[in-house]
Amino acid sequence: MNPSYDFAGQVALVTGASSGMGLATARAYAESGAAVVLTDINQGALRAAAAELSAAGHQVLPVVCDVADEASVAAAVRAGVEAFGRLDHAFNNAGIQVPPCDAADEPAEVFDRVNAINLRGVWACMKHELAQMRTQGSGAIVNNSSLGGLVGLPGRAAYHATKHGVIGLTRSAALEYAPRGIRINAICPGTIATPMVTDMIAKGELDLDLARANQPINRLGTPEEVAASVLWLTSPGAGFVTGVALPVDGGYTAQ
User: Fold this and answer.
1) What pLDDT does residue 1 have?
2) Terminal-residue alpha carbon distance, the chain
């Protein structure tokens, strides 16, 4: 059983909110009483996610957003603040995976695309979220890195470079904003049972049995377990925690 939180009267923004870890986190915030700004590039899936949460009686605002476009990010943050008056929490989750590739053969356009979403996208989100939070003198941000931000794997150089970069962004910004009442942390999920992972398995880019075996808990994680880590990091219970890169990986990085 996950702990319960009271986020009534507070506002959370989640990117990549239409499925997987993003949707689970948006749902968890909503169930804990927060108004939630749902952002995603997939308009149809975003509308469906917002309709589900709204039908359950939650206060949500869907905003189509491409995190690779800073103007789109700025507009999404602005829309959330205009609708709800403030911004207390953010989970910068939107990201993509790319097929494994020999580092000597990686096309520049692939590197640029994964960097634009996974690293520059987190930078843009954090930038505009912080601009609002510093006017309030409060807030908590969680950036989604990966176990790939803590280790290396063959064939994953471009992806892992972005996820290492997210941790660097997180730590430096956390030090800058700690004196201003704003906490910034990262999570580093292992292999989680999300639509993206399902797609990788279907394409032969990930071996399910090997993924399970590589996690000492011997199973995939769930989006809800990731959401629980995000809510804890943004809750008062983690009030003395900032600048960390928290593994949520079933023990993978402990080996």
Assistant:
1) 52
2) 26
CA–CA gap between residue 239 and residue 137 (Å, rounded): 14
- Count the Cβ atoms, other than its own, within 10 Å of residue 218: 10
d(CA 62, CA 16): 11
Q: Is 148 in contact with 214 (CB distance < 8 Å)?
A: no
Q: Scanning the structure block, which residue is given the tokens 């603040």?
A: 81
Q: Is the dihedral of CA 205, 208, 209, 214 positive or negative?
A: positive
3-state SS class at 216: coil
| Token digits of residue 115 | 């960097």
184 close to 174: Cβ distance less than 8 angstroms: yes
CA distances from 215 to 163, 192, 197, 208, 255 (A): 19, 11, 15, 11, 9
Tokens 């629980």 sit at which residue?
228
pLDDT of res. 214: 82
The sign of the CA dihedral 8, 59, 187, 129 is: negative
pLDDT mean over 217-240: 96
Catalytic residues: 159
Domain residue ranges of the chain, discontinuous segments joined by +: 11-191+226-245
Return the CATH number of 11-191+226-245, one of 2.160.20.10, 3.40.50.720, 3.30.565.10, 3.40.50.2300: 3.40.50.720
**Mean pLDDT, residues 149-165:** 96
Contact indicator for 157, 111 with CB cutoff of 8 Å: no
